[in-house]
Amino acid sequence: MGEIALSGQRFRRIPHPYSGQSADVESLLSDNVEPWPHLTELLQNYTADWVKDESKYGHYESVPTPVFENQIFEGPDTDVETELRLSNIRLGRYGDATDDEDPTTSGRYSGGLFSGRFSGRSTGSDAPDSTVTKASKHYGGAPLLPYEPVFNWLAARASVYGQRTPEIPTALSSSGGLKISVKIASLNFQAGLVEPWYGTICLYHREKREKLSEDFHFRCLPPEFQDEASNYPRKAVFSLEAPSPAICLLVQLEKHVTEEGGITPSIYTRKEPIFIPCGSSPLFLYIERDKQKLQVWAKMIPFREPFAWSILPLFDAIVTGGVGGFSSPTNSPLPPGVLGSALMETSLDSDGRLIADSKPESVSVPVLVDVPTLHRVKENYTEEMLLVEHPSGQSSMLSFQEPKRKVQKPVKATLRLEIERLGSDDHETDCISECGSFNNYSFDADSHSLGASFSGRSAQGLESTKTFHNGHQKSNSGHRDLQAGIGSSLDLRRSEFRAVEFRLGPKPEPLSQLLHLLYVYPQSVTLNRKRNLFIRLELRVDDGDIRKPPLEALYPRDADSSMQKYVHTQIDANTKTPHFHDEFKVQLPTNLSPDHHLLFTFFHVELQTKLEAPKPVVVGYAVLPLLFASQVIRLDGTLPIAKELYPNYLKDNVKDRLEYLDDGKTVFKLRSRLCSSLYPVNERIRDFFSEYDRHILRTSPWGNELMEAVNALKNVEASAMLQFLQPCLNMLLRMIGDGGETLQVAAFRSMVNIITRVQGETSDGDERNRYLVQYLDYAFDDFGGRHDPVYPGLCSVWRSLARSKAKGYRVGPVYDDVLSMAWFFLELIVKSMALEQSRTYSETLPPGEELPPLQLNDEVFKSIGQLYDCLLTEVQERGKKGLTLANKLNSSLGFFCFDLLSVIEPRQVFELVALYFSKFCGVCETTIHEYKLNFLSIICDHDLFVEMPGRDPTERNYLASMLMQELFITWDHEDPALKAKACRILVQLLCKHEYDLRYQSLDDKLYIAQRYFPLVGLILDEMPVFYALSSSEKREILVCVLHILRYLDDGSLVKSWQQNIARTRLFFKLLEECQELFEYKKAGADGLMGAMPVNEQGKGTLCYSEKLSPAVNHFLSEASRQDVRILLQVTKSSPGPQWIFPQVSPDASTFWKRVSPVSNSPSSPNQPHSLREALAQAQSAGRGAGMALKESLHPMLRQKLDLWEENLSASVMLQLLEIVAKFMDAASSQAIATDYTKLDCITSIISGFLGRSQPLPFWKAFFPVFNNLFSQYGATLMSRDNDRFLKQVAFHLLRLGVFRNESIRKRAVVGLQILIRTAFHYFQGLSRLRVLLTITLSELMSDVQVTQHRMDGSLEESGESQRLRRSLRQIAQENISTDLLRESGLPEGTLSALPDGGCEQIWSWAGVHELSNSLLKAVEAAVGHALLGPEVMTADKYATAEAYYGLARAYSNVPDLHIMWLLYLCEVHQGNQSYAEAAQCAVSVAGVVMQAIVSKGDHMWGKEHVEALRKICPMLTGASFGEAASAEIEGYGSSKLTVESAVKYLQLANKLFVQGELFHFCAEILELIIPVHKARRAYGQLSKCHTSLTSIYEAIVEQESSPIPFSDATYYRVGFYGESFGSLNGKEYVYREARDVRLGDIMRNLGNIYEPRVIEGKQSLHIIPDSRQVKPEDLHAEICYMQITSVEPVTEDDILESRRDRHSSKSVTTVSARVFNRFLYDTPFTKNGKSQGGLEDQWKRRTVLWTEGSFPALVNRLTVVKSESREFSPIENAIGMIETRTAALAGELDDNRLNEGDHPSRLQSLQRILQGSVAVQVNSGVLGVCAAFFSGEPSTRLSAQDLQELMAALMEFMAVCKKALRIHARLITEEDQEFHSQLVIGFQSLTAELSHFIPAILSGF
Fold first, then answer.
1. Is the Cβ–Cβ distance between 102 and 80 less than 8 Å?
2. Which of the ends of the chain has fewer CB neighbours closer than 10 A, N or C?
């Protein structure tokens, strides 16, 4: 890892921003200051290079954050994969997409889930091929990345208590306030530009009446006055601390003074221009003579006079707040937004905060502005007079304070300015004005009085001056060379003037620039007569001879000139009280002496035209000593004017001899402003500098004066001290370093006092004062190596103080101060050490190598150790009291160790760390334990933390070991906040490693993983500690564990698995926790799709996401407060996370209105704009707070949140899959123990994979692993011990077959085929697998939504059901199997491959096809059942029974399921009072159980008993449950198929048969129950059975002896014709109804059932009441037909050929024949189309129907499967009628009741039949038949055979009647003799009538 180390040059030298920006400081630097060491220190402070420690705040370069792609989860959206692919193509993000390279993911699963970075792969282009190959092992991306998608190293560091942040000096900062560029575009007069014009521009504060900047001088010359130098364009740059509506630009114009008696300035204010004819066209010209006079006068007279002024408002009067600043006012000539908030572009950082956008595009473009009207005044004015608002309130209309001073007419001129707001990149730091900058914020309250002769006042208030500059330095540009910077500054000075800002704010700042200036403002002179007066200013070094030239120390007005000796003011002509508006800038000498003074010379000049320029006449002199003026920052005072000066005029004795104007009154008023960083105003500081000089020069032994001066610094005001803070600290440190013990202590105490007061008064509540931080980071360079380092002396004096306190000595309050400022001294010590280290080794260090550690001597390290121990004691004692100081001190000690790790030997630092944790060992109090976590967070953030050695040479990374130990101890702490904080530390640390550019190679990641892997062992050893954590804490830990395992080498992982089985099981328990905690539940989808249940959506903690890092919630909380437009400003150059946002229109934000904290815009009435409102709405709506928060997010943020959660779940699951694959490989190679009997370590993981919602990349990676699992461990997994696992696998594979995503469905089909292949190999068949799949399919169907509503409200089959059926069909489609395997990433021979040890291929596509069909039948039955709907199931009992029967039949290969659906059907029949059908269901259930028992070899029953049941329930025939019973599945199988169950269901059948009066079945059932009771000797039950048998047989006798034949049911044939009947159309059924249901009843019932359905189909229903044949082509399409015919059950085989009628068949049918599957009905018809006719024309069609089963059945209706019919002619019909009556009478005579002696019942039946046979009317009965066929025309058409058969039937009929009469005569009593006589008479009469047709009949009777 050599390339990771920092370069040997630890420090970066930064040229002082102000050291070489102007040649003006050369005079200061060239002065000899050796006699004044304090000046040497001051100059060194303001000119020496800054030294910045590059590693102090961490060295971190981040790799680009990966771009997360949408994951395809199964959800409510149709075909999500296709939609995403099309969307991506539309956005141009992908080219042609292929199946292998799915555009909805980042690519192949081996490439990771995210684009932008390869998962686990080096991003460098020089990575070897082997590295790339190794990286491809990863199935997905690192889980840590989506878990912490907004990781920001700076934000993570800032979360640590006491975290130090760099403070960039103002000179290097881009936040220097507002910067405005002003350029003179043009100056035009109505009268023309005929003479030179001059002017000044400055910033002015109208309310405070103060100048905010120095004057910018400009000139506008006519062509006659221009030269090469004057063509230089100049512009001014003004800076502001903050905008204000009171700030304006003050513009003042001046011109050459006007000649007395000449042309007056009124020509510039005339309303009308002067037109003078010239040629043919008038020209606007001056009179040529006047023009020449003006030009000559301007060249002759250099003096100028004020002419006009104006102001230009810059800002609005209403502060809009926020980041924007101000917008232009309505009365401002600037366009709106030029200086307003529109230019303050903002963006969002990774913490969700607003940051200023420094892009060049955000800077405004220059605008041209015309200055408002220029004003002239009659009398002279001051700035205070003119800047007063007009009473009308308009700021542009100004008037004088005094009513007498009236504004004259405006000047007819236009001044055009070019104004531009400058961006942070418009200027470099070296572009500073020639005058530099100055910062003075206070005056010396102890300054002496200015004296009687010099009356004045000091500034009342705190003021400041500050140079306008841009401190922002581009990172890619080096610091300029000093000489080059000077040249650049000189060039820029010609074109650009950077005005000094005079700050008026109350906050002081340290002086950071070398300036020694005095601004002088002459204001007015009071004279006794009118004069043309001007003033000359000069700086003199002494008062010896006034004729000596003064110093060249005055700045010129134009940039083309050098420093001047003299400068003069304007002329205020012909007035007694001249006023002046000039600003003089004086460069002060380096060392001020009492003789330095300013000399003001007053001149009067005659303004009349002469041959030569008029000569000024001296009026007087005024003197201002510099030491006197330098005692205050701002001076307002007056001076007397002397008529003449004598040598040594500054001496008091000479002053008395001088003669003054106006009797010595102070008639000259002036103002001055001191800007000096060399000369302090405060007297105590001056005294300290003086004593410091004496101490350094050793001019006299130091004594009480030096001690007093040092101690006096404690009494200097903080504002005054702050100005000279850095040089004072350097001087005190010099004393601490090389002074005696007494001086060291005094200097240290004074230094503590100074920094404490500076911290308290200027920190604005910050823990670390920014000026002190800037001093430490930049200014302090330990004297540049010129003296001994500071740290030994500083450590020694501090240790002495600390040990004195520890020993109980009184040290005073200074000790508390030093503890509060410990951070300052500790950092000072470290930087001193680091500077010594750099100076010691940097010169001899080869390039690119790191600095060796600094070798501390034992005494110094001992001193540091003792000091450290004392400070730890303070932390412990004060921390127990809960003092904040303890926490601050603890952080300071952490940073101290952090810094020392880069300076001294790390093992020496480890001694300090060990000392820390020895004091705070184990589980401590909450406060102290929090200190430990803060300490860990600090030291572990070191740049080289990963590379740290161990405390012992044989160890590795002592800090990492300590970290893991302390984190685990914290997880066992009782405070939840500490647990969460410990988890955060671990996550942030791993994120730092992961994003660190230095650790991107695989070797580095492996090294890091090995260092952290012991943490996994700690967790496994103490799993109760882990289980006691909350869900969020577990997620934090587990995502770190997965990240460690991801990059860990296989050898280390396998070695951990080899330790013991129990530990390995715990390891995989952790992985199961990962599955549970990181599962992605897509809200809005159903449970089948792995979605979040409705009752769970939105519950949980009050956060946006429970799955992601807490940092994400903070990020979203911050981001949700911003405006929508901010989210779109994500630049490519940003080092933070890169987001992909959809393209939106500019008005995209209008659909989601939010309220920003800085905005006053109203919020949307429908959306919450704050957390409180979101929660309130959530509670009112009954929703969870978590979902309310998420819904309150902007849609774009909510989209990102979903994206992160999707990618997190996907990466976690893929990482788990990768670990499982490694375990499988290790177990198969016998690298680990193989005694996992059920492989339960990974089977639960596999089940968890399948049972949870997974994205498409996971399924692509899963099935190759799934195939390897069953190939390697098929025998183990297919054993009965793993039934539960197999059931779960089968269930979830079938579930995947329902998904909308076609890719997932195809892989589910392949998974099922892998199961089938394994079953073939290890079971030699599919019986057991068929049962298992059927069971799981039954469970799945309860989750699948098999129906859906159409638009009209009706039901149809759903897409889920269709997809499931398609998947089940594809299992057996051999033609697509190869393609499916290829798409799933498996070899084409996967299904035919032999397992380990196999020798024969037994795969059978026929068996697979059979399995597929059986499963499809189950699905179809479920669909049919669901399509009925609740309304149909309530109204249509027939369809309901069929639906349940279909389900029972579909699951017939699983006894438990078959029985379950049969029992459901039984309950339905009982509810409909269909007891026969219910009893048949119970018989079927008992038959299933009995068959299973018989197949198992139980001797309780035999096959004959099963056959007996099949006679009762013929539908039981053909059902085989042997395979199902033997293929027991956990929870299903023969364990429930017992004899007791069979007896229970037989008893139920018996009960139901009794209710249905089918007693003959009851007897047979009881015969099956009795053997069981006999075998078990249950005599009580036997007694009950025999009693029941007795009752049953008695009921059977009663039924058979009834005179009315018993009928248990009626049967009807129903035919359906019409499209509205759906699947019933064209089918015929036989319905079994109760015996009391007549034809009309069933017509009405069926009409009620089907009429609504027909009406919905927009058709009408018509019932065909007769039984004629229906021809579909004769039916109307708009009508649905239903034909209902009563049918009779028959048992005879030749019934179709029999001519007999069936009306009397019941009389000859035994009661025991109650099972029917054939039915008959007769249809009369005639050849002429009529249904009825005479006997001679009446035909009959007999139809016999065969049903699908036998009645009574499991359902109420059976389908007609066969139908045959035969037509009978009239004669055959007649013969059949006669034979029917004959058979009925003969049957009555042969009845067995005769033998039983049941004469009454026999007599009644016989009388009824005889009466209908012999006592007939004419033309009815047999007499009608004879009349129809033996007479007339019909007899001629009949054949002789037909007539003979008819006569034979009649003769037999008469013979039976005669026999019946004889028996009747024997049976009757005397009461029936009369009835018998009537029957005999009727018989005789019938015989006589028949004899007319058949004469032979008389001979027989």
1. no
2. N
Residue 139: CB partners within 8 Å, gap ≥ 6?
109, 110, 1214, 1215, 1217, 1218, 1257, 1261
- Distance CA(1394)–CA(576), nearest Å, equals 122
Give phi and psi for 1896, each to the nearest 5: -65, -10
1831-1843 pLDDT, tens digit each: 766 666 677 777 7
DSSP 659-701: -BGGGG---EEEEEEEEESSS-S-HHHHHHHHHHHHHHHTSS-
Nearest-5° angle of CA 976, CA 978, CA 981? 110
pLDDT, tens digit (0-9, with 9 covering 90-100), for 441-481: 333 333 333 333 333 333 333 233 333 333 333 333 333 33
**Rounded CA Rg of the chain:** 56
* Burial (CB count within 10 angstroms: exposed 0-12, middle 13-18, buried 19+), residue 987: buried
DSSP string, 986-1041: HHHHHHHHHHBGGG-SHHHHHHHHHHHTHHHHHHHHTHHHHHTS-HHHHHHHHHHH
**Read out DSSP for 288-353?**
HHHHHHHHHHHHH---EEEEEEEEEE-S-SS---TTS-----TT-SSPTTSSSGGG--EEE-TTS-
Phi, psi of 1568 (to 5 degrees): -85, -25
| pLDDT, position 1095 | 42
Triad 209, 212, 217: Cα angle to 5°: 110
Euclidean distance between CA atoms 1622 and 1901, whole angstroms: 63
Euclidean distance between CA atoms 1033 and 128, whole angstroms: 39
Nearest-angstrom CA–CA distance, 674 and 515: 10
Of residues 1595, 1613, 1612, the one with CA closest to residue 1553:
1595
Run of H or E including 1305 = helix 1302-1323
CA 869 to mean position of chain CA atoms: 46
d(CA 628, CA 58): 50
pLDDT tens-digit profile of 977-1003?
999 999 999 999 999 999 999 999 999
Q: What is the pTM of this model?
A: 0.74
Q: Which CA distances in Å does 284 have to 192, 273, 409, 423, 497?
A: 8, 7, 21, 43, 36
DSSP code of residue 393: -
Query: Whole-angstrom Cα distance, residue 891 to residue 894?
Result: 5
Cβ contacts of residue 1293 below 8 Å, gap of 6+?
Answer: 1250, 1308, 1311, 1312, 1315
CB–CB of 1443/1428 below 8 Å?
yes
1584 Cβ partners below 8 Å, 6+ apart? none
Specify whether the CB–CB gap between 54 and 506 falls below 8 A.
Answer: no
- Cβ(1279)–Cβ(1257) below 8 Å: no
Taking only the tens place, the pLDDT of each residue in 195-219 is 888 999 999 988 888 888 889 999 8
Neighbours of 363 (CB within 10 A): 17
* Cα 263 → chain centroid: 79
pLDDT: which is higher, 1724 or 116 = 1724
pLDDT band at 1711 (very low <50, low <70, confident <90, very high): very low
Q: Which residue has the tokens 């005579």?
A: 1789
Query: Nearest 5°: phi and psi at 255?
Result: -140, 170
CB 930 within 8 A of CB 981: yes
Query: 3-state DSSP: the chain helix, strand, coil percent, rounded to 5?
Result: 45, 15, 40
Q: How far apart are CA 1292 and CA 1372, in angstroms?
A: 19
Share the mean pLDDT of the chain: 77
Range of weakest confidence among 187-191, 445-449, 1031-1035? 445-449
